[in-house]
């Protein structure tokens, strides 16, 4: 893995970074989810296998926090996250579509500013 990815994995996973790296090397999952971030495909599979991650939204928001760091990158990564989780968790096409739509709805909530309302003065 690239040096910046290795630093990211060490920071995010501590001594478990070797497990994620091994998974990346053994299964060919060393590619970045988006080229401008250090999060790799193996992290998705690792989260599903070892951290009881059950949804794409959970991965993007809580496991790697990409939704909070860069919502556009999270949207780019979403189809691959769903594909990897579907393979690992044996999701059917219906579940994959549900995950995709729910995650899109979640990511869209970051783009919508709350409506500003003035408080009534009495």
Question: Which structural class should the secondary elements be placed in?
Answer: mainly alpha
Question: How confident overall, as mean pLDDT?
Answer: 93
Indicate the percent of residues in helices: 55-70%
Instruction: Please report the total strand number as a whole number.
Output: 0
What's the overall geometry? globular
Series of secondary-structure elements, N-terminal to C-terminal: HHHHHHH
From the alpha carbons, calculate the radius of gyration and give it in angstroms: 17 Å
Instruction: Give the amount of beta strand, in percent.
Output: under 5%
The number of helical segments is 7
Biggest sheet overview: none
**Terminal Cα separation, in Å?**
63 Å
- Low-confidence sequence ranges: 116-122
């Amino acid at each position: 893995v690239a040096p910046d990815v290795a630093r990211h994995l060490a920071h995010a996973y501590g001594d478990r970074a070797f497990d994620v790296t091994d998974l990346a090397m053994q299964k060919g999952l060393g590619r970045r989810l988006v080229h401008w971030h250090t999060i790799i495909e193996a992290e998705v599979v690792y989260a599903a296998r070892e951290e009881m991650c059950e949804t794409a939204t959970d991965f993007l928001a809580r496991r790697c926090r990409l939704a909070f760091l860069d919502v556009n990158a999270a949207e780019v990564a979403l189809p691959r996250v769903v594909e990897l989780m579907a393979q690992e968790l044996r999701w059917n096409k219906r579940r994959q579509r549900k995950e995709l739509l729910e995650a899109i709805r979640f990511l869209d909530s970051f783009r919508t500013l709350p409506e500003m309302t003035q408080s009534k003065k009495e």
